[in-house]
Amino acid sequence: MEQLSSVNNKLIKDLAKLKQKKYREDTGLYLIEGFHLIEEAFKANLNFVDLLGTEQALNQVAEDYQVDLDGKNIYLINSAIAHHLSSTKNSQNIFMVLKIAQPKQYPFNFGKWVLLDNVSDPGNAGTIIRTADAAGFDGVVLSPNSVDIYNPKTQRAMQGSQFHINIINADLVEVINALNDNAIPVYSSMLDKTAKQLQEFAKVAQLGLVIGNEAHGVSDEIAAICDEKLYIPIKGQAESLNAAVAAGIIIYHFA
Predict the structure, then answer these.
(1) CB of 116 closer than 8 Å to CB of 145
(2) ∠ CA(125), CA(41), CA(77), 5° rounding?
(3) 19, 153, 232, 235: which has the fewest Cβ within 10 Å?
(4) How confident is the model at residue 32 (pLDDT cuts 50, 70, 90)?
Protein backbone atom coordinates (compact mmCIF):
# COMPACT_ATOMS: atom_id res chain seq x y z
CA MET A 1 0.00 0.00 0.00
CA GLU A 2 1.35 3.38 -1.02
CA GLN A 3 0.55 6.58 0.85
CA LEU A 4 -0.44 9.73 -1.06
CA SER A 5 -0.63 13.07 0.69
CA SER A 6 -1.17 15.78 -1.95
CA VAL A 7 -3.98 16.64 -4.33
CA ASN A 8 -1.21 17.65 -6.75
CA ASN A 9 0.01 14.07 -7.02
CA LYS A 10 -0.13 13.02 -10.70
CA LEU A 11 -2.29 9.97 -10.02
CA ILE A 12 -4.78 12.04 -8.03
CA LYS A 13 -4.91 14.67 -10.76
CA ASP A 14 -5.56 11.97 -13.36
CA LEU A 15 -8.26 10.30 -11.28
CA ALA A 16 -10.01 13.60 -10.59
CA LYS A 17 -10.29 14.08 -14.36
CA LEU A 18 -12.38 10.89 -14.56
CA LYS A 19 -15.34 12.95 -13.37
CA GLN A 20 -15.39 14.25 -16.96
CA LYS A 21 -16.72 12.16 -19.83
CA LYS A 22 -13.86 13.10 -22.15
CA TYR A 23 -11.23 11.65 -19.84
CA ARG A 24 -13.28 8.53 -19.19
CA GLU A 25 -13.48 7.95 -22.93
CA ASP A 26 -9.78 8.72 -23.45
CA THR A 27 -8.59 6.36 -20.72
CA GLY A 28 -11.26 3.66 -20.77
CA LEU A 29 -11.54 4.04 -16.99
CA TYR A 30 -14.14 5.30 -14.55
CA LEU A 31 -14.30 6.06 -10.85
CA ILE A 32 -16.82 4.77 -8.33
CA GLU A 33 -17.08 5.80 -4.71
CA GLY A 34 -18.82 4.62 -1.59
CA PHE A 35 -19.00 1.27 0.16
CA HIS A 36 -22.16 0.03 -1.53
CA LEU A 37 -20.90 0.46 -5.10
CA ILE A 38 -17.55 -1.04 -4.19
CA GLU A 39 -19.29 -3.99 -2.54
CA GLU A 40 -21.29 -4.58 -5.71
CA ALA A 41 -18.08 -4.47 -7.76
CA PHE A 42 -16.51 -7.09 -5.51
CA LYS A 43 -19.64 -9.26 -5.72
CA ALA A 44 -19.36 -9.08 -9.51
CA ASN A 45 -15.76 -10.33 -9.22
CA LEU A 46 -14.38 -7.29 -11.00
CA ASN A 47 -10.68 -6.58 -10.85
CA PHE A 48 -10.04 -3.00 -9.82
CA VAL A 49 -7.38 -0.83 -11.42
CA ASP A 50 -6.86 1.24 -8.25
CA LEU A 51 -8.35 1.29 -4.78
CA LEU A 52 -8.00 4.41 -2.65
CA GLY A 53 -9.24 5.32 0.79
CA THR A 54 -8.52 6.85 4.13
CA GLU A 55 -7.10 4.55 6.80
CA GLN A 56 -10.47 3.87 8.38
CA ALA A 57 -12.17 3.25 5.02
CA LEU A 58 -9.46 0.90 3.78
CA ASN A 59 -9.51 -1.05 7.03
CA GLN A 60 -13.26 -1.50 6.66
CA VAL A 61 -12.83 -2.73 3.08
CA ALA A 62 -10.12 -5.13 4.20
CA GLU A 63 -12.36 -6.54 6.92
CA ASP A 64 -15.57 -6.71 4.91
CA TYR A 65 -14.22 -7.94 1.58
CA GLN A 66 -10.96 -9.70 2.54
CA VAL A 67 -8.79 -7.27 0.61
CA ASP A 68 -5.04 -7.51 1.19
CA LEU A 69 -3.98 -3.92 1.81
CA ASP A 70 -0.40 -4.83 0.95
CA GLY A 71 -1.46 -5.56 -2.62
CA LYS A 72 -0.63 -3.48 -5.66
CA ASN A 73 -2.48 -0.30 -6.64
CA ILE A 74 -3.92 0.31 -3.19
CA TYR A 75 -3.41 3.83 -1.92
CA LEU A 76 -3.82 5.40 1.49
CA ILE A 77 -5.13 8.94 1.10
CA ASN A 78 -6.06 11.75 3.45
CA SER A 79 -9.42 13.50 3.78
CA ALA A 80 -8.30 16.40 1.58
CA ILE A 81 -7.66 14.03 -1.34
CA ALA A 82 -10.92 12.21 -0.64
CA HIS A 83 -12.78 15.51 -0.81
CA HIS A 84 -10.97 16.35 -4.05
CA LEU A 85 -11.99 13.06 -5.68
CA SER A 86 -15.51 12.92 -4.34
CA SER A 87 -18.64 13.85 -6.25
CA THR A 88 -20.77 13.93 -3.10
CA LYS A 89 -21.13 16.31 -0.16
CA ASN A 90 -20.54 13.58 2.40
CA SER A 91 -17.90 11.27 1.03
CA GLN A 92 -17.36 7.83 2.54
CA ASN A 93 -13.67 8.28 1.68
CA ILE A 94 -13.36 5.13 -0.41
CA PHE A 95 -12.83 5.02 -4.20
CA MET A 96 -12.27 2.40 -6.86
CA VAL A 97 -11.10 2.75 -10.45
CA LEU A 98 -12.53 0.24 -12.93
CA LYS A 99 -12.17 -0.44 -16.64
CA ILE A 100 -15.08 0.44 -18.89
CA ALA A 101 -16.20 -2.91 -20.27
CA GLN A 102 -19.47 -2.36 -22.12
CA PRO A 103 -20.04 -4.70 -25.07
CA LYS A 104 -19.76 -2.97 -28.43
CA GLN A 105 -22.29 -5.27 -30.11
CA TYR A 106 -25.14 -7.48 -28.99
CA PRO A 107 -27.44 -9.80 -30.98
CA PHE A 108 -30.74 -8.73 -29.31
CA ASN A 109 -32.23 -12.13 -30.08
CA PHE A 110 -33.82 -12.73 -26.70
CA GLY A 111 -35.11 -11.05 -23.58
CA LYS A 112 -36.73 -7.96 -22.16
CA TRP A 113 -35.05 -4.64 -22.86
CA VAL A 114 -35.55 -1.00 -21.99
CA LEU A 115 -34.47 1.38 -24.76
CA LEU A 116 -33.66 4.94 -23.70
CA ASP A 117 -34.25 7.43 -26.49
CA ASN A 118 -32.12 10.48 -25.67
CA VAL A 119 -32.81 10.34 -21.92
CA SER A 120 -30.62 13.16 -20.65
CA ASP A 121 -31.04 13.28 -16.88
CA PRO A 122 -28.48 11.09 -15.06
CA GLY A 123 -30.81 10.48 -12.12
CA ASN A 124 -33.61 9.32 -14.41
CA ALA A 125 -31.37 7.07 -16.47
CA GLY A 126 -29.79 5.51 -13.40
CA THR A 127 -33.16 4.96 -11.73
CA ILE A 128 -34.57 3.32 -14.87
CA ILE A 129 -31.57 0.99 -15.08
CA ARG A 130 -31.95 0.10 -11.41
CA THR A 131 -35.67 -0.56 -11.89
CA ALA A 132 -35.04 -2.74 -14.95
CA ASP A 133 -32.55 -4.72 -12.89
CA ALA A 134 -35.01 -5.12 -10.01
CA ALA A 135 -37.75 -6.28 -12.39
CA GLY A 136 -35.55 -8.95 -13.95
CA PHE A 137 -35.09 -7.34 -17.36
CA ASP A 138 -32.11 -8.45 -19.41
CA GLY A 139 -30.70 -5.02 -20.08
CA VAL A 140 -30.95 -1.38 -21.03
CA VAL A 141 -29.88 0.22 -24.30
CA LEU A 142 -28.99 3.90 -24.40
CA SER A 143 -29.11 5.88 -27.63
CA PRO A 144 -25.93 7.79 -28.56
CA ASN A 145 -27.36 11.08 -27.23
CA SER A 146 -28.51 9.65 -23.91
CA VAL A 147 -26.63 10.39 -20.71
CA ASP A 148 -23.27 8.75 -20.00
CA ILE A 149 -23.79 5.87 -17.56
CA TYR A 150 -20.37 6.57 -16.03
CA ASN A 151 -21.49 10.02 -14.94
CA PRO A 152 -21.14 10.03 -11.12
CA LYS A 153 -24.80 10.94 -10.67
CA THR A 154 -25.88 8.06 -12.90
CA GLN A 155 -23.59 5.71 -10.98
CA ARG A 156 -25.19 6.70 -7.68
CA ALA A 157 -28.71 6.29 -9.10
CA MET A 158 -27.91 2.84 -10.51
CA GLN A 159 -26.71 1.64 -7.09
CA GLY A 160 -24.62 -1.14 -8.62
CA SER A 161 -27.15 -2.35 -11.20
CA GLN A 162 -24.54 -1.75 -13.90
CA PHE A 163 -22.84 -4.88 -12.56
CA HIS A 164 -25.99 -7.01 -12.84
CA ILE A 165 -27.53 -6.46 -16.28
CA ASN A 166 -26.43 -5.63 -19.82
CA ILE A 167 -26.04 -1.91 -20.47
CA ILE A 168 -25.31 -1.06 -24.08
CA ASN A 169 -24.89 2.12 -26.12
CA ALA A 170 -26.30 1.61 -29.59
CA ASP A 171 -28.33 3.12 -32.40
CA LEU A 172 -31.96 2.45 -31.44
CA VAL A 173 -33.09 1.99 -35.04
CA GLU A 174 -30.62 -0.86 -35.42
CA VAL A 175 -31.64 -2.35 -32.07
CA ILE A 176 -35.35 -2.21 -32.87
CA ASN A 177 -34.73 -3.81 -36.26
CA ALA A 178 -32.76 -6.60 -34.57
CA LEU A 179 -35.54 -7.16 -32.03
CA ASN A 180 -38.14 -7.27 -34.81
CA ASP A 181 -36.01 -9.70 -36.81
CA ASN A 182 -36.24 -12.00 -33.80
CA ALA A 183 -40.02 -11.56 -33.47
CA ILE A 184 -39.67 -9.46 -30.31
CA PRO A 185 -42.28 -6.68 -30.11
CA VAL A 186 -41.23 -3.12 -29.35
CA TYR A 187 -43.54 -0.69 -27.54
CA SER A 188 -42.96 3.03 -27.14
CA SER A 189 -44.24 5.01 -24.17
CA MET A 190 -46.05 8.11 -25.43
CA LEU A 191 -47.83 11.05 -23.87
CA ASP A 192 -50.60 10.50 -26.39
CA LYS A 193 -54.19 9.72 -25.44
CA THR A 194 -54.76 8.10 -28.84
CA ALA A 195 -52.22 5.41 -27.96
CA LYS A 196 -53.33 2.16 -26.33
CA GLN A 197 -53.59 2.42 -22.56
CA LEU A 198 -51.09 0.41 -20.58
CA GLN A 199 -53.69 -1.87 -19.01
CA GLU A 200 -54.72 -3.06 -22.48
CA PHE A 201 -51.35 -4.72 -22.93
CA ALA A 202 -50.91 -8.34 -21.90
CA LYS A 203 -47.63 -9.52 -20.46
CA VAL A 204 -45.22 -10.94 -23.02
CA ALA A 205 -42.18 -13.14 -22.58
CA GLN A 206 -39.92 -10.80 -24.55
CA LEU A 207 -40.10 -7.15 -25.54
CA GLY A 208 -38.39 -3.87 -26.13
CA LEU A 209 -39.75 -0.88 -24.24
CA VAL A 210 -38.83 2.63 -25.43
CA ILE A 211 -38.68 5.50 -22.93
CA GLY A 212 -38.26 8.94 -24.43
CA ASN A 213 -36.51 12.18 -23.60
CA GLU A 214 -37.81 14.00 -20.52
CA ALA A 215 -38.89 17.10 -22.45
CA HIS A 216 -39.64 15.80 -25.94
CA GLY A 217 -40.65 12.18 -25.47
CA VAL A 218 -39.90 9.42 -27.97
CA SER A 219 -38.60 10.80 -31.26
CA ASP A 220 -40.83 10.53 -34.33
CA GLU A 221 -38.27 8.34 -36.10
CA ILE A 222 -38.24 5.80 -33.28
CA ALA A 223 -42.01 5.89 -32.65
CA ALA A 224 -42.67 5.18 -36.32
CA ILE A 225 -40.88 1.82 -36.25
CA CYS A 226 -42.30 0.55 -32.95
CA ASP A 227 -45.02 -2.10 -33.02
CA GLU A 228 -47.31 -0.32 -30.57
CA LYS A 229 -47.58 2.98 -28.71
CA LEU A 230 -48.69 2.87 -25.10
CA TYR A 231 -50.03 5.51 -22.77
CA ILE A 232 -50.27 5.67 -18.97
CA PRO A 233 -53.61 7.31 -18.12
CA ILE A 234 -53.32 10.50 -16.09
CA LYS A 235 -56.18 10.47 -13.57
CA GLY A 236 -55.40 13.69 -11.75
CA GLN A 237 -54.39 17.18 -12.83
CA ALA A 238 -50.68 16.51 -13.43
CA GLU A 239 -49.67 17.09 -17.03
CA SER A 240 -47.34 14.11 -17.14
CA LEU A 241 -45.23 11.68 -15.12
CA ASN A 242 -41.51 11.86 -14.48
CA ALA A 243 -39.69 9.68 -17.03
CA ALA A 244 -38.25 7.33 -14.41
CA VAL A 245 -41.61 6.98 -12.63
CA ALA A 246 -43.39 6.25 -15.91
CA ALA A 247 -40.71 3.74 -16.84
CA GLY A 248 -41.07 2.01 -13.48
CA ILE A 249 -44.83 1.61 -13.88
CA ILE A 250 -44.47 0.17 -17.36
CA ILE A 251 -41.49 -2.05 -16.56
CA TYR A 252 -43.33 -3.71 -13.69
CA HIS A 253 -46.46 -4.12 -15.81
CA PHE A 254 -44.42 -6.38 -18.09
CA ALA A 255 -42.17 -7.94 -15.41
Answers:
(1) no
(2) 105
(3) 235
(4) very high
Say yes or no to pLDDT of 194 above 90: no
Distances (CA, A) of 36 to 32, 65, 106: 10, 12, 29
- The pTM for the full model equals 0.94
Read off the pLDDT of residues 74-90 as tens digits, 9 standing for 90 and up.
999 999 999 999 999 89
Distance CA 57, CA 171 (A): 41
Identity (one letter) of the amino acid at 153? K
pLDDT of 104: 82
Could you give the CA distance from residue 244 to residue 114 in angstroms, rounded to a whole number?
Answer: 12
Domains of the chain: 2-99 (3.30.1330.30), 112-254 (3.40.1280.10)
